[in-house]
Each structure stands twice: as C-alpha cells, then as structure tokens.
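User: Here's a chain of 676 residues. Predict its fold as tokens.
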Amino acid sequence: MRALCGAVMTLIAQAAIWLGLGLAPAAADSLPPAGGAPHLAMSLVADSDAPRAGQVVTLALDTRPAKGWHGYWRNPGDAGFPPSFDWTLPKGVSVDAPQWPVPTTLVVAGLMNFVYDTPYAPLVAVHVPAGLAAGTKLPIRLHTSYLVCTDTICVPEQQNLAVELTVGDGAPANGAAFDRWRAAIPKPLDAAATYQVEGDTVTIAVPLPATAKVDQAYFFAGTPGSLKYAAPQTVTRDGDRLVIATQGAPSGRIEGVLRIGRDLGLSVRAAPGTVVATSGQDAGASGGWAAVLAAFAGALLGGLILNVMPCVFPILSLKALHLARGGADERTARVDALGYTLGAVLTCVALGGVILALRAGGSAIGWAFQLQDPRVIVLLVALTFAIGLNLLGRFEVPAPQFATHGGALGSVATGALAAFVATPCTGPFMGAALGAALVLPWPAALAVFAGLGLGLALPFLAIGFVPALRRFLPRPGAWMERLRRVLAIPMLLTTAALLWLLWRQAGWLGLGVGIAAAVLVAIVLVAGGRRQHRGEGFGLPLAFAAIGAPLVLALVVTGNATVHAETGGTAFSEAKLAQLRREGKPVFAYFTADWCLTCKVNERAAIDTQATRAAFARNKVQVLVGDWTDGDPVLGRFIQAHNRAGVPLYLYYAPGAATPQVLPQVLTPGMLAKLH
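Assistant: Prediction complete.
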C-alpha cells in the first residue's frame, strides 16, 4: 500500500510539473524541432572500434547538455522520467544495463530531482559473440527517448544514434575519455549495508574505513519510492562506517549511490536490519568540533583583515572619528560598537544562509555570489559614490542616523553596509574557512559566517569597549574634516573599480547605466545637501529619488557579457588540465574574478610580472586561468571540490604528483618562481 501511495504521489508531482510548465504529456513522443539541435547532444563512442570475437566492448553515451539544461539519472527523483534505450543489435550481440555516473541534486518547487547539468556519459557493456571472423561488421543502433529541462521548462526528445564496429584485434580507442568516464561511475561496495526504519525515519549504515576521505556526502536512492527524495539527509561518521539519516518507507532492499566526493560514488545495497546509535561525528566536518573551531578562527582572522580593504576602511574610520569628536560616554560607545557588530554579523550570516540554501538546490555559487549579477553592481556603484560624496561633505545623511552619526539603528546599518561592500574581497585565512563552511552542518556553517562578521567588527568593538584605546584617538580638530575628504579617495576608487567590473560583465550598456546611476545620485544628493546647508531638511522626495533612480536603472541591465581572462595563460578546463598532466608538464592553475580585489592585487604584484613569466618559461610551467566572474557553475564545482567557497584559488600540479599543492591566497613573485 505504501509503495502504491508513493507511486501515486510521484505521478501527481510529475503532472504538476507538466501543467506548471505548460506542456502536454502527449508531446512525449515528439522529436526535436525540424532543423533544431537537441538540448542534449549525444554520440555513441566505443573503447575499441575493432573488438576481438568474444570480447566485451564498452560503449559510452557521450552526453553534453546545452547551457542551462539538464538530463536525468536512471531514477529522476520526484519528477521527470528516466531515459529509455531501445537497441537494435546484430545477431548474437547483447548489451548490459547502462552504468550511470554520479548525478547531482536539483530542487525545484520543493521537488528533488537527480540530474546532470554538465557533460556525462552512461556506459554500456556490449558482448561480442565468439567465433566471428575478422572483418565482420557489427552495426549497433540505439533509439533513446528522454526528458531534458531547465529550471522552468521541460522538453521530451528522441534521438537515433549509431556506431559500427568491425571484428579485429581489440585495439583500444579513446583511452583518455574512457578513463575519465569510468572514474565517474560509482564503485561497487564490497561490504553489505544495513538500514533500520523507526516511524518515517530511515537510518542507513554503510561500511567505510575511517581513513577514507568523504566530501559532499549524499545518498541517491535508486530504488523508486524507498525514500522521500526531498527530505534532508544527515551524514555522520561512526568509526568504520557512515550513517545516513533521512525519511522514507522502504520495503525490501534499498539500492542506490553514496556520493563521497566530487564525481566519486559507491554503489550501495542495504538490507533491513538494526543500526545501533552513532557517535554523532559529522562526516563533512572532518574532525568534528576541531574543524568547526578552526574554520571559525580562520573566518575571524579573515574578517579582521578585511578592515584594511579600501572599501571598508573609510567606513570603519568614520565610526572611529565619531567617537574621537568627543561627547560619547561609555554607554554610547558600547551601544555604537554592539550595533555595528550586530549589523556586520547579521549581514554575513544572511549572505551565508543564501549561499547554503542555493547550493542545497544544486547551484555552484560561492562568496560574493551577488557580484555576478550586473544589476547588483549598478546598485553598489550608486551606493559607494554616495558614500564618497558624503565623505566630501556634499551632503549629510538624514535620519535615521547613519554613517557619521550615532544611534543604535545607524550603527547596525553601518555594520551591515561594511559587510556588504566587503564581499568582493578575500584575504588570508578567509578562503579556507569559508570553503570548510560548505561541508559543515548548516548550524556550524552559519557560525563560521558569523565569525567573518565578528572579525570585521572587532576593531570598532574593541574601541567601543576598551576606554584606553579610545584615549589613543587624536583630539577633535580641523584635521578631522581633512581626513574625511582623504577617506573619500579609496571609496571613489572603489566606485571606479565597480564601473570597470560592470563594463566587463555587461559591456558598454552596463557601463553607461552605471555612470548614469552615479550622475543621477550625485545630482539628487547635492541638491539635498544644498537644502541642508540652508538649514532645511534633506527633503523626502529627494530621498526617494536617491534610492529609486538606481533601482530603476538597474533593471535595464539584463545579462552578463562573456568575460575573458587577460592575465595570460590558457583558459582552464578539466580536459586541458588532464591532458597537460598526462604529458608530465608542471601546471599552475589559478581561479580569479573581476570583482575579486585580492585576485587583482595578486595578478598585478605576483602573477602577471616579467619575473614570473620568465621563471615559468624557464621551468616550462603551463598556466591555466579559470575566470569565475560570471559564476560559471562548472568552475564553481571545481573550486568547491578544493574546499573553497570562492576565489582566489591557486593550485600547482607538480609532474607525477597525485594531488595539487594549494598555494596561499597572498602570493609573491618569489613563491611562484620556485615552481618547477
């Protein structure tokens, strides 16, 4: 009865998807539009074009989804349907069931889907009969029907594929591609797994040595209806086993795939039994509380270093200048400090929560993800330019009190502003800490993001709570206004950098919109400042215009332009990296983005220098550049696989080394010159 209910619910979910997307199920047997390319480009590839008689040859269904589209695993999850395969084979030839690579998850409207949104290749074993004469032709035909979708639309498609083999000497072909494809196929687990059901909670114990590295653990149920696909999963380490806790109503054996790393998985068969209580050490935490504390400390130090960045330092300085003006008693100083800290911490936690939620839905975003949207850049241009004008004394911020004024609400807003404008920056300690946060349980991960905000607020927190530090602040005087104008310089330089980034992301249209936003904001704010100088209020209409104009202009920028790295080297791809490593060449791979200040400093000071280029040429080091400005999900997954939440990431692959050396996030020319 439970199985029947599960099947009915699945059919209802699929019907909802069809209706929501405006498609009729009757279209399921339609071919792609005449003259139109299918959204999944497919081809049959053999690991030997001339197999021996009696040999087993492997065919790969090389599948490449179009950008923004995805295909489905053999169990599609809550919606969709699995591909079907109809083979036409020569007499005596037989095929096994396809072997599928490890899929990924995609949540749409609360429905969990098991999909592929990057190139993948199911493998099929073809049995060639014995006794065939050399030169015998073996034409193999495949008719496949499948569903291909974006996040908002689905299209049923069909393709007819063919490959012709000739009985021969069994010489291998396409070796490099098959090495990659076979590595993505889950490995059979040589020990029995067990599961236990209590109510609707299912606990699965999978034998796995304690020394085995586990990353991004997730169990993909291959048995339809056995588990609730969208239910959260908790994966814990208990000695020489992993324990997965989720929800479902299985009966009989559960079969599926346990992901233990990027594109790495184990085929699991679990029988009903008893699962004893676990020790509760989270597998993704890599060491429990020690890993959490290390990540928190790294985020704290990284946030502290952010205070010297040109877009944050002026804001911190303004708060310190407010205290230096005198008249702030102990209570006021502490309220200011606590408000600033609260704003910084809440903003970092909010950004971290959005990152974790989107990644749980299958996105490959990281820290500063919002800077991949040019509309956000337009708003930041207007905001930083407004701060620069305020520092130049062209206007004062009206109530509620803000930047240069006191008040708990103003302090909270200032801390939030400092955290938000700091997102383009990544410094020492910060990258590793945020990368670790992505594999921790969500409460621990949010604690790490809170540590980043706390580190950002620490200097002002110390000034507010330690009177001795406030006594070191210079006495008020005319110098304060001069310093305030000096602090406008880095803020206006930040505006210029954001305009450049906008041009890189959205072309000349984006740059024009950004400049227009800055000009309109300047006109409105200067007009309000003149009213203030006459002793009048800023004016509510002007305040609305200052906020509304950038919002309206941001809507004009609708997409990202293609971005190319300019710092030399070859565009990064995993295929190119694999090729260079097979050739035994040393490889320096670095991952950057136009909105990453630390990246640009390293490129200017250490990477794109004559000394480094000469050293790389002398040592025959190959350079690969991964440009993540537009949030490429393929690069995002590669970066995530190296325990990083964003850029910069610097990797050095020595010839013959099994794993890369992860270089520090602050580079020096001497450090790179030693690579060989």
